[in-house]
Amino acid sequence: MFDAQAYEAEINQAVDYIKSRTDRRPEVMVILGSFAGPVADALEDPIKIPYAEIPNWPRSTVVGHAGNLLIGKLGGKMAAVLQGRVHFYEGYPMTKVTFSTRVMARLGAKMLCVTNAAGCLAPGINPGDVVLVTDHINMLPNPLIGPNLDSFGVRFPDMSKAYDPDLINIARFAAYDLKIDLKEGTYIAISGPSFETPAEIRMASIFGAAMSGMSTVPEVIVANHCGMKVLCFSCASNLASGISKVALSHQEVADTMAVASKNLTALVLESVKRAQL
Ligand code: HPA
User: Fold this and answer.
1) For a substitution probing ligand 1, which of 87, 248, 261 has the most ligand atoms within 8 Å of its CB?
2) Considering only CA atoms, which residue is closest to atom 10 of ligand 1?
3) Which end of the chain lies in a sparser environment, N or C, as judged by fewer CB atoms within 10 Å?
4) Are 187 and 232 within 8 A, CB to CB?
């Protein structure tokens, strides 16, 4: 059985370590998904803490995910930027997948801005598009299963506004001002690591999903549990299975994300700058 007390102690150890390294207290947590690296370049005077140095912090095994925590000003706000995340498909338990989110909540972060690369399956969304995630469908185990961590939040947290309506509007206006054609839709989280079958994508489409990916939703659920406001941008890296005529490859994802990351970076920066926390 999951030991909630031991888990909270692990979280506190990581919090204490980060506090010992810097006086900076992040208001915003930013998770950079695959190939969203340029956001980190926009950080002013960041301090860098390699994940390997933070007690109990999990490290990603996926190519394209650097393993550093950066803390510095982003759009005028103190931000903790995570270069790389861990996924459920890597074999980590949900407590590890969402560890960093709890650490950041405990450090005082009020907002999570999360990015990812995902397959697109809705008409009108194409590879290279940035999509504002307005809702999700969770096909992964719920990260809150187990004893409730009362010091973070309630047993049955509301998910009717999992993606903060004010931040959604801020992102819409930012996109308008930046002249970026920001799409919108629901993200469905599958476990991976295999891509979906065409039948699974047809199901996701009937469910109303626009994007399908293997990350993000665990962190979003935990951020909501901790009372953080969430903003999520998904980059369409490829047409989802069955929509595309060719087999999916990681290389295809990498090539398209280089194009999308420019728009993504501008949107993250501008939205964080305009956010009212
Ligand atoms: N499906 C799931 N996850 C993904 C995809 C996809 O097509 N592309 C990038 N991550």
Assistant:
1) 248
2) 118
3) N
4) yes
